[in-house]
């Protein structure tokens, strides 16, 4: 493989890398996806997928199978953590103002597996950590941690927040937003009996929420953004 020139190399087999590769494949363009991990990184919990992302999943041909495994969320309810009162209740049902929205909470593992399953075998090359990139005429030379050098006409960076491709392109280092988060998914044997609604709670720098994926799984999260005063106190206590 080292001597041959690839048409398209994508760095990162996350959601972005696999979707890009599948989109290209559907258009008849093969690609090679380089992933640093030795298997598909299916850990994590779930993501709330909105209308535009469903269009993208339909375009690459995995929308229908994911719809069958995740329930349609027909409402968004927000509650203040300060007053305890409900602050909004938006319906996405057919007759409602926001009826054209499609929202489902998709398990990350199922989405990654659905994307990977549709790709021709050999598309994803695991244990292939990109460490540097060089330009050689019209080609890019992609250096891997194991010493392999791959040549490609097109290089696409989908390697997440500390992207090697991004750094090579001169992008700034990622900035810390100050927000911390804890996420999880509860899976029960019996039906959880939550309505298919996105429940969100806001106040005092906290945003938390829960949203059913299907009738047995509920994805939940807590995020916290400290005020500038709290940040200062935190800095003093270190
Ligand atoms: C393991 C994991 C679990 C997650 N769980 C959740 C969740 O439960 N809920 C949620 O909302 N979001 C979650 N996220 C975040 C969310 O999936 C991503 O932030 C978002 O989808 C962006 O996807 P991405 O494909 O751009 O980047 P990423 O998902 O970060 O994927 C980048 C991929 O590139 C690979 N990579 C990085 N550097 C290199 C390199 N130098 N060479 C080769 N490969 C490289 C990484 O191993 C990774 O597989 C998770 C992300 C990860 C990686």
Amino-to-carboxy terminus distance: 50 Å
Strand order of the largest sheet: 7-2-1-10-9-8
Radius of gyration over C-alpha positions, nearest whole angstrom: 21 Å
Helix content: 10-25%
**Could you say what the CATH topology is called?**
FAD/NAD(P)-binding domain
In CATH, the homologous superfamily goes by the name FAD/NAD(P)-binding domain
Specify the structural class. Answer: alpha/beta
Poorly predicted spans: none
Q: Please state roughly what percent of the residues sit in beta strands, choosing from under 5%, 5-15%, 15-25%, 25-35%, 35-45% or over 45%.
A: 35-45%
CATH class: Alpha Beta
Number of strands: 14
**Number of helices, where a helix is a run of at least 4 consecutive DSSP H or I residues:** 6
The distinct ligands, each listed once, are: flavin-adenine dinucleotide
CATH architecture: 3-Layer(bba) Sandwich
What form results from the Cα inertia axes?
A: globular
Number of domains: 1
Largest sheet: 6 strands, mixed
Mean pLDDT metric? 93
Protein name: FAD-dependent urate hydroxylase-like protein
GO molecular function, one term: monooxygenase activity
Domain FAD-binding: 7-233
Keywords: Monooxygenase, Oxidoreductase
